[in-house]
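Model it.
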Amino acid sequence: MPMLVSELAPRIGAELLGHGADIEVTEVCALSEADAAGLSFVSSKKHLSALRATRAGAVILTPDLAAEAPCVCLLAVNPTLAFARAVELLHPRRRAPAGCHQSAVVAASAAIHPSASIGALCVIEEGVVIEAGAEIGPGCVIQRDSQIGADARLVAAVTICARSIIGKRVLLHPGAVIGREGFGFARDGERWVRIPQIGRVRLGDDVEVGSNSAVDRGAIGETVIGNGVKIDNLIQIGHNVEVGENTAMAACSGISGSTRIGKNCTIAGAVGMAGHLQIGDDVHFTGMAMVTRSFERSGTYSSGIPAMPSADWRRNVARFRHLDEMARRLLRLEQQVAELQDARRPVPDLSDGEKKSDKTA
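Modeled.
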């Protein structure tokens, strides 16, 4: 969708640098691949060499990098955000046509807005409500009494289990499962007996759930994902978890049941979180953190061991087995040093003071 940079700049929150440089751009491209009709962006100084060599017609960047650009500049405080807005304008998504595909199976009691789109081979069960502008892609299953908010988009092969509530503008990627029965069992001797999970899931507005991620229904009550939460691929959210607004989780993380996560948190890749924890607002866990206790104070927390040469790793693992013994030996040495210091400390000479006292008397 071609657009003049003078029209584009105010719509993405950027300032056009210079005059007489009102060119037309037609697509977004990487710095190294762009041509005169391409728009690219730079977010840090580590890309300076690529910026200097680019053939892009225009580049979105911060003001301090403008002198390095060989082309038209769109100045933005947050180039990545401005670029995201530019992508939406130059590459608008083609919406699915309204209506229901002839191969879809739709229950008579389902209420589907005329502007919604139901793709091929979908199954829409009894009591489902699908609001205006929603897009249900091919192969999706929406079980009984679920609600899909306005302009929500289920890309393909998404499963919405019974009584789930999906907010407005939610984006669910292929393979996502919302509202499945959680992992709850009771022991009966040597056997496990499933505990029926009778709650539901509630996704707020503007939530995104990645491919093959699962959000379990509440055992009793609700699993709640707040407005604006972003969940990456291959993430497990256990039953009765609550996630606060605008929290983001990277791939392969797992949140155990009944944990409460606050607002504006970030959870990096492969984080594992135990159940029944309290995580405050603005808490940030780095990759592979193992979270076994509550963190209610805002801040950044880490625990994963970074990769290292195999030889170093083997030596460290060998020493790890002796850590407890080494700690006890260190404690004994500290005690012995303290005793030696006490033994060597000089005793105060009180003889002069005693003589003065005798003369005074």
